[in-house]
Design a protein that fits this description.
Layout lengths: L4 E3 L9 E3 L5 E2 L6 E2 H23 L8 E2 L11 E3 L7 H16 L5 E2 L1 E2 L8 H11 L6 E2 L15 H16 L1 H14 L4 E3 H4 L13 E3 L3 E3 L9 E6 L3 E4 L5 E3 L2 E6 L7 E4 L3 E4 L13 E6 L4 E7 L13 E10 L2 E6 L12 E6 L3 E6 L5 E5 L2
Helix pairs in contact: 3-4
């Protein structure tokens, strides 16, 4: 948690944790101040010390650091979670604006405890929270030792299957997410973002907090209330596709989405390109031998970033980038695969390029430029 705490009596005796007094002196005498001013800096510098120490101890392998406390710039050293939330619907709902605000502040690798930390989640709440949690940059189900068990199977077979479905979707989306993390590291762009980030000229989205974008392509409209199976969804300008059915939808409009317990409404912007990996039990279970590039007709492009995921080789150009471009011409969808850039080479693999509703083609991923035609 990276926050200083005191007991109300000497250590070892029973007692309650109490805040450090805000007027407690901090720092060396030459620049002494109070705890009120340094509280958040304490968490920031403790996290930085941990990250720098790990890098010295593990110079060839990346480490994972997680903190609850921090200050502006914490994203350089750590991921962040939002602290002790509760197993209540309002905490599920408020997680979206909290995480989006952090993302807009430059802190992209963020998450909230899925299912709630304190209290006992219901089966319905846990299922809906797992659907939303699939979108969190930091996806973690976590609960207090005083809560009931919160493993997916505790809530029955239906909820277990729902959780499996969305966890597997998360694993499939990892190539897309990994590129979003790279973009965040390079530019500060949020991974999970409010609609106003991508549609700033649309007055309909300025106060919309219960729909979110995962990168520029995917839009989710999760259910955040109990007993709800239909919800209003606003589609910004342009053309959209239903992720689950492939149905084409026109933007700048409201629709009524069917959202039974097993479905979170999810939409894709026309012209989007999303790389998908096979569902696995963990990211290094097996080398990815088949990559699916899913394309929705329209006009757009996506540059997929890759590296070994373990070392610091990316700092010395040991990375790869492949750009996919999609256009339409006389009823045909054209997908152009540009030559791969960078020194890093993936394991031998095939790539299936699928244009939703128009078929798929398989190619050997040898890093050369290729052009594919669909439909027409």
């Amino acid at each position: 948690m990276n926050e200083p705490a005191l007991n109300d009596r000497p250590f070892g005796d029973p007692g309650d944790k109490i805040p450090l007094p805000l007027d407690a002196p901090q720092g060396d005498p030459a620049e002494q101040t109070t705890h009120a001013e340094t509280h958040n800096l304490y968490g920031m510098m403790m996290t930085r010390a941990a990250a720098e120490g790990l890098e010295r101890l593990r110079p060839d392998q990346r480490s994972f650091v997680l903190t609850r406390s921090g200050y502006a710039g914490i994203q350089r050293w750590s991921s962040v979670w939002t602290g002790d939330n509760y197993s209540r619907w309002e905490y599920l709902e408020m997680s979206l604006p909290m995480l989006c605000n952090l993302g807009l502040s430059g802190v992209a690798f963020v998450g909230a405890d899925i299912g709630g930390f304190a209290g006992n989640a219901t089966a319905e709440l846990f299922a809906r929270w797992m659907q939303v949690g699939m979108l969190y940059p930091l996806m973690r189900a976590h609960s207090s030792i005083t809560s009931m068990q919160h493993e997916p199977w505790v809530f029955g077979e239906q909820v277990e299957q729902i959780c499996r479905k969305y966890i597997e979707l998360r694993y499939q989306l990892l190539p897309y997410l990994y590129t979003l993390f790279w973009q965040a590291a390079m530019t500060g762009a949020p991974i999970l973002r409010p609609l106003l980030y991508d549609f700033s000229n649309d007055p309909q989205v300025s106060q919309l907090f219960d729909q979110v974008m995962l990168g520029p392509a995917l839009m989710a409209a999760p259910v955040l209330r109990p007993g709800v199976e239909y919800r209003s969804v606003y589609l910004p300008e342009g053309t959209w596709y239903d992720w689950w059915t492939g149905k084409r939808l026109q933007g700048s409009s409201h629709i009524l989405a069917h959202a039974p317990l097993e479905r979170m409404p999810l939409y894709v912007k026309a012209g989007s390109v999303i790389p998908l990996a096979p569902a696995m039990q963990h990211v290094s279970e097996v080398p990815i031998q088949q990559l699916r590039i899913k394309v929705w007709s329209g006009t757009g492009a996506w540059t997929m970033y890759e590296d070994d995921g373990e070392s610091f080789g990316y700092q010395t150009d040991d990375w790869a980038m492949t750009t996919y471009r999609v256009t339409e011409d006389a009823g045909k969808t054209i997908v152009e695969v540009e030559a791969r850039m960078g020194r890093w080479q993936p394991e031998p693999r095939t790539v299936i390029v699928e244009v939703v509703g128009k078929g798929e083609q398989e190619l050997r991923d040898d890093g050369t430029a290729q052009k594919l035609f669909f439909g027409g």
